[in-house]
């Protein structure tokens, strides 16, 4: 899921920027938003990785039957 991976990376970068700006300005809410954005992106990436692995296993099992 290359397109999704790029999207997740972009979400992480936006989160990192928000966190950094929050740190720079002393805005705890913005900092927390950035950290949350990064965590969400990481979780989404993890889900996509599991889906990819499951598809790989399913493909392998199908190949073994033929």
TrEMBL record:
It holds the Pfam family CsbD. Residues 1-66 are annotated as: Disordered. Residues 9-55 form the CsbD-like domain. It comes from the Bacteria. Residues 1-19, 46-66 have a biased composition (Basic and acidic residues). InterPro entries: CsbD (IPR008462), YjbJ_sf (IPR036629). Belongs to the UPF0337 (CsbD) family. This is CsbD-like domain-containing protein. The lineage of its organism: Bacteria, Bacillati, Actinomycetota, Actinomycetes, Micrococcales.
